[in-house]
Design goal:
two-stranded antiparallel ribbon
Length: 1059
């Protein structure tokens, strides 16, 4: 048994060293082991059984009727505790203001105290010693729970995060032996309780689950926190009993009140007279504790203490099983919060949190912080400690000792005083029951009488009056024996010498005074203030460094992208105006919302960057566009395609307009007109009903798409290759295609006079050099293609509306790839002209047929791109967009908004595949603005994010890397509050690409880690998509590895000269 820190030294030495107190030590040790057995065996069945590996009498050695009786009592205890922690207390109930945690603690405290008292009485333990022994056992169990809690929490951080092993995450499944080793190390090796080694003694039952998970470790953590709070409350109960037992002689009997209150008070006093009975307002709990006491009281004989320990262990095991729903519920809450907050990306598991009331009263509120201090010290710490001078280390030890003494006095002085007074009152533990005169009552009375006579004879009349007054007004002090001995020595000294000799020469050490206490408190305050000063200094340095790095990055961004300077100047002007006239007046326009005070003045969108909007207003495009880290990307095009041949020239071209935040003036609409326009976006019920009939119930065009933009793995796709092999294979294929194209071009243009071809022979394959330029060229962003909506159904519907002689001609044009001619033939459709390329001849009041033709044109544009007829797709989509205002005039405003956004998004996708078309590339910015504005008005956040990613990919081809990063960050900001999805992973991936090609390697590595952590929590995606992400991760990490050497070679920094 561990000697508590609050137990006085004399009592502890007698209890631990005297032979006649051995039985008390055995009883405490045996019942503490029984408690450990109940704690370890609470989950027997789910995991390897523990109770049979604790050195207690097995239940099989009991008689059959005793086993049945014990099983019945355990069932009642289990049911009561489960009811207490799961049922919501009703109004007016005894535990109406208590939480489930507090209710469970109350049940455990009552049962543990009753079981300990009755089981201790089965042996040779004195009844007067039971309260102190109970408190000592609780202290030892609490210390063990603290130790195990620290070890388990550190193991959680190692097993379920990638701190040591990158393949570990919150889904890891460590074996049960990991947890069993920690429990054995604490309970047996450190606390020396009777627990078998799980490595040498196998369990009787292996359990239903072969391995543990995060939920099991969190339950273990919560169970240890519950144990600490349980033991703290039990020790406080024991202290209250000691203090109450000393005051019973001064208790007054109640003579007022109704008869029921008097009877209840008398019953409560009877329960408080015995330590085995703890009063509680729950009658069921009092009855269950009475039943448990009667069952234990039935044990008798020389083996009664050992069988009583088995009974106690089984009953506590049942109580732990009853509290299991409370622990499981809190563990599930931690896992749910971890998944929502994406806590695995931070590399730490958050600690289990209780309710606020329970957290404030808990003895383990900051256990996760304390646990981190028990990790092995770092190399820097060891070197610093070894360099400390010897005198400084002694000073540190003195400071720590002073602080521990201060903590001991503040925390345990009340408990120590209660134990001293109680032990003096019951005259336990005795030094020697046979010969010790200190324990004789007559000798003690004679000594007190002589001490009083000496005090009266030596004291003055004034001191006598003061002393009598203090003696009558103050209760007996725990240090009265020491004071009596001091007075006795002083009296003898006064008779042999003068008072002057006593003051300085006769004392060995000055007694502590108020000045000493004040100095100690001031020193502790000084040490604490210095620690806080160091923490604040470190925090301030971190903030200043982050501010400087952010300003440097922002300055570099402005130097690389001059197009952002007008927006910055506008922001600076508004901030300057706000500092003069007030920020509310500067950022909120006067007059009507949405219009200027003059009403008709031109205003740029930059002037509304910081405009506060109503929460009910629909979000606009310019919201949440803070400048992020840059992201760059380009499509993987072959050298033979027109896009591949024009990529290099367009990448360096600066003729295309900047696709950044809109800076052209826009005239503000009238408020009433805008409200009428926004209200007209809603689709009426009649219109939607007709649309669903026409489209066979498909209304997906009016809804936002799912954020799962990458298909899941089906198992049929080819397996993924190692990234280095995949990258080299792709580079080799591009090189072969480029070589073949060059050979064909030379053979067609160059020939000799005699007709022989002078083209060179087969070229030797060269392995590409793996350096930073190669990696920057190989890294590409992901492209999310737009798909044609119900193309086959729309085409079949159009063919049914054509006459027979026109139908054959239409099919012939389709085979020849002349899709514009096919659309022109729709003028002969049976309902009327459906040629959207000539809007003046369109049929009226047939909006759904017009949408069918528009969807058909989108499908034809995709076929053109697939068949390398990009010019046909450009001409087709351009003609449609030029006449879109007339073509869609009969559509409902909401339906027209949906279809216009779809067509502009398709045009933006064609810009990606046709970068050589300069006229179309110049309109890419307009296409994105039109499509994104309509997506935002419709509230389609995921479609808007995909549109931003497509625009960023187009800008990547055009060489506008910083603007590509800008729009990719817009998509990421829009998904900031969205759950984890593959769309979010694509955003982080493309950000990594864009920052890498802008030579911002740290940002690229950060984004790579972000999407790699996301992929671990998402379902398995398609192999081709995952291969792309693996290649990007490998390239970015390779760039990080080769970056210092590349900077030296490129002259970006000077090489470090060897000393």
């Amino acid at each position: 048994m561990q000697v508590p820190t609050w137990m006085p030294r004399e009592i502890a030495s007698r209890l631990a060293e005297r032979q006649h107190e051995v039985e008390h030590m055995k009883t405490t040790y045996l019942l503490s082991t029984a408690f450990i057995g109940g704690y370890l065996g609470r989950e027997d069945g789910r995991r390897p059984s523990w109770f049979d590996r604790v050195h207690l009498e097995p239940t099989s050695s009991l008689a059959v009727d005793q086993q049945e009786q014990l099983a019945s009592v355990c069932h009642v205890i289990r049911t009561k505790v489960r009811q207490a922690v799961t049922c919501q207390p009703t109004l007016g109930c005894h535990n109406a203001g208590m939480t489930a945690w507090q209710t469970g603690l109350l049940c455990m405290r009552v049962l543990w105290r009753a079981l300990f008292a009755i089981a201790a009485s089965r042996g040779e333990a004195s009844q007067h010693a039971v309260p102190v022994l109970f408190m000592s056992a609780c202290h030892g169990l609490r210390q063990a729970a603290h130790k195990l809690l620290r070890k388990v929490w550190l193991e959680v951080q190692e097993q379920f995060t990638s701190r040591q092993n990158r393949y570990r995450n919150m889904k890891s499944r460590p074996s049960w032996s990991v947890l069993e080793h920690l429990q054995y190390q604490v309970f047996k090796c450190e606390c020396n309780w009777m627990v078998c080694d799980p490595a040498s003694v196998p369990a009787a039952h292996t359990g239903a689950r072969p391995s543990a998970n995060l939920h099991d470790f969190l339950e273990e953590t919560l169970a240890l926190r519950f144990t600490v709070d349980w033991m703290n409350a039990s020790m406080q109960d024991g202290q209250d009993f000691l203090e109450t037992s000393l005051k019973r002689n001064y208790r007054k009997s109640m003579t007022t009140g109704d008869p029921i209150s008097q009877q209840l008070t008398l019953l409560k006093e009877e329960w408080q007279d015995s330590f085995a009975t703890m009063w509680t307002d729950d009658a069921e709990l009092r009855g269950i504790s009475s039943v448990a006491r009667r069952v234990l009281s039935s044990l008798d004989g020389p083996t009664a203490p050992h069988f009583a320990a088995t009974y106690v262990g089984q009953m506590l095991l049942a109580a732990w099983q009853g509290a299991e729903p409370l622990l499981a519920l809190n563990a599930e809450a931690v896992i749910a919060r971890l998944v929502q907050a994406q806590g695995a990306m931070t590399g730490t598991i958050p600690p289990p949190q209780l309710e606020q009331v329970d957290e404030d009263n808990s003895g383990t509120a900051a256990f996760h912080i304390i646990a981190t201090t028990y990790r092995p010290p770092s190399k820097d710490t060891r070197e610093l400690v070894s360099a400390i001078p010897r005198g400084v280390s002694k000073a540190i030890v003195r400071v720590q000792a002073l602080f521990r003494g201060f903590i001991l006095r503040e925390r345990h002085i009340g408990r120590s005083r209660a134990v001293i007074n109680y032990c003096k009152a019951v005259r336990w533990p005795r030094l020697d029951p046979s010969t010790d005169l200190d324990d004789d009552a007559a000798d003690a009375r004679d000594r007190r009488k002589r001490r009083k006579q000496l005090k009266v004879a030596d004291a003055s009349p004034e001191d006598d009056d003061v002393g009598n007054h203090q003696e009558m007004s103050q209760p007996p002090s725990p240090t009265s024996a020491i004071q009596g001995q001091t007075i006795l020595q002083a009296s003898s000294t006064l008779r042999t010498g003068s008072r002057t000799e006593l003051t300085m020469n006769r004392r060995a050490w000055p007694l502590p005074t108020a000045d000493h206490r004040a100095c100690a408190d001031l020193f502790i305050l000084y040490a604490y203030s210095m620690q806080r000063r160091r923490m604040l200094t470190g925090t301030w340095q971190t903030l200043c460094g982050a501010y400087e790095r952010g300003m440097a990055t922002f300055a570099e961004l402005l130097s690389r992208n001059p197009a952002l300077r007008p927006m910055l100047e506008s922001i600076a002007a508004q901030l300057k105006r706000g500092s003069v006239v007030g920020f509310d007046k500067a950022f909120i326009p006067k007059g009507k919302p949405g219009a200027d005070a003059q009403g008709g003045r031109m205003r740029t969108l930059d002037a509304e960057l910081f405009k506060r909007r109503d929460a009910r207003q629909r979000p606009r495009l310019d919201e949440g566009t803070a400048l992020p880290a840059s992201i760059d990307g380009r499509p993987s095009l072959s050298a033979t395609s027109p896009a591949g041949r024009a990529a290099s020239t367009l990448g360096a071209s600066q003729l295309t307009p900047a696709l950044g935040p809109p800076r052209t003036p826009v005239r503000q609409l009238d408020v009433s007109r805008r409200s009428r326009q926004e209200s007209s976006l809603g689709i009426t019920e009649e219109y939607l009903t007709n649309y669903l009939k026409e489209m066979d119930g498909d209304d997906s065009q009016f809804k936002d798409i799912s954020s799962s933009v990458i298909p899941l793995s089906t198992g049929a796709s080819p397996p993924r290759q190692p990234p280095n092999e995949s990258i080299l294979n792709q580079a080799q294929r591009r090189s072969d295609v480029a070589s073949a194209a060059a050979v064909d071009e030379e053979s067609a243009l160059v020939a000799t006079d005699n007709g022989r071809d002078q083209t060179p022979g087969p070229r030797r394959e060269t392995r590409p050099r793996l350096d930073v330029p190669f990696c920057l060229q190989a890294i590409t962003p992901m492209w999310l293609p737009i798909k044609a909506h119900r193309f086959a159904a729309y085409r079949a519907k159009v063919l049914q509306m054509l006459p027979q002689h026109v139908l054959q001609q239409y099919i012939d044009f389709e085979k020849q790839g002349e899709y514009s001619s096919c659309i022109k033939l729709l003028e002969s459709a049976s309902p009327g002209s459906l040629n959207v390329l000539n809007p003046s001849t369109l049929i009226n009041n047939k909006p759904l047929l017009l949408e069918t033709v528009m969807q058909l044109i989108v499908g034809y544009a995709g076929l053109c791109l697939r068949n390398s007829q990009g010019s046909v797709a450009v001409r087709l989509i351009t003609q449609v967009l030029d006449g879109i205002s007339l073509s869609l005039r009969d559509l409902h405003p909401g339906h027209r908004t949906v279809l216009e956004a779809y067509l502009y998004d398709t045009a933006l996708s064609i810009c990606y595949y046709m970068p050589a078309d300069m006229s179309l590339s110049d309109r890419a910015g307009s296409f994105f603005q039109q499509a994104s504005d309509r997506y935002m008005r419709l509230g389609h956040s995921n479609r808007y994010c995909k549109c931003c990613l497509r625009a960023a990919a187009v800008l990547h081809i055009q060489g506008k890397r910083s603007e590509a990063e800008y729009y990719t960050q817009q998509a990421l900001n829009k998904l900031s509050d969205a759950p984890m999805s593959s769309l979010l992973a694509v955003c982080y991936h493309n950000l990594a690409v864009h920052t890498a090609v802008q030579q911002r390697v740290p940002d690229a590595v950060s984004h790579v880690r972000a999407y790699a952590a996301l992929l671990k929590q998402l379902p398995k995606l398609g192999s081709s998509w995952m291969q792309h992400m693996d290649n990007t991760q490998w390239l970015v990490l390779k760039i990080q590895e080769l970056w210092p050497q590349y900077q030296v070679q490129a002259g970006m920094r000077e090489p470090q000269l060897a000393s």
